[in-house]
Amino acid sequence: MASKKPRILNDTRDMAWSLIPLVVAMLVIAGVASQCSFSPGGPTAGPAPTFDLDAGLKYDAKELGFPIRHPEVPEGWQSNSGSRSIISGNEGGDSSTVGFVTAGGRYVRLTQSDAGEDELVRFVAGESRRVTGAQQIGARDWTVYGGDGVEALWVSDFGDVRILIGGSGTEEEFTELATTVGVAEPLTT
Predict the structure, then answer these.
(1) Is it true that domain 53-183 has CATH number 3.20.20.80?
(2) pLDDT-derived band of residue 32, with 50, 70 and 90 as boundaries?
(3) Where do the domains of the chain lie?
(4) How far apart are CA 170 and CA 167, in angstroms?
């Protein structure tokens, strides 16, 4: 008599009994590694990442060929990201971007670039933005780019650098950042 059942007699119950030890082993390993959690109410927001704004902007001011400004952001804003990019095109150039989480929990980006305004807007937002208005903040004129269902972008020409503000922030948060960057002096290298 054969010690194993013929293959034709195996069914889903046999498969379930063979998978149970594998699932238990997987749960034990994940529990020991602390890589899983049970949250019946759904995911919760964790802390926002942090970014050393001072060091990032000082480094960009030293490395990039245009003036970099360090705005004093409002209390409660946290810098959470930074990057540098090369913008292609006829009026392309370099860019320095820093991101903030506002006191209201929204994201606002500040991009400084020696690229032309059209290339800068195209680089950040693609072809989906068009001029929808203007703002006068302090002594600076800001061109507002928008469209249906897209976040607004504010761009101002500071002479040798273009400044772009974007993200999910409110108009008041954009105004706060535009005000502080408008009065900020370029960092010295």
Answers:
(1) no
(2) confident
(3) 53-183
(4) 9
**Sheet of 140-146, strand order:** 78-87, 93-101, 107-113, 162-167, 153-157, 140-146, 130-137
How many Å apart are CA 29 and CA 23, to the nearest integer? 10
Name which of 187, 172, 176, 38 is nearest 112 in CA terms.
Answer: 187
The string of pLDDT tens digits covering residues 126-169 is 887 889 999 999 899 999 999 888 899 999 999 999 999 999 99
User: Judging by beta carbons within 10 Å of its beta carbon (0-12, 13-18, 19+), is residue 129 exposed, middle or buried?
Assistant: buried
Question: pTM here?
Answer: 0.77
Give the C-alpha separation, 99 to 166, whole Å. Answer: 9
CB 111 within 8 A of CB 123: no
DSSP 3-state of 160: coil
Using CA atoms, how far apart are residues 78 and 71, in angstroms rounded to an integer? 13
Query: Region 55-66: what's the mean pLDDT?
Result: 94
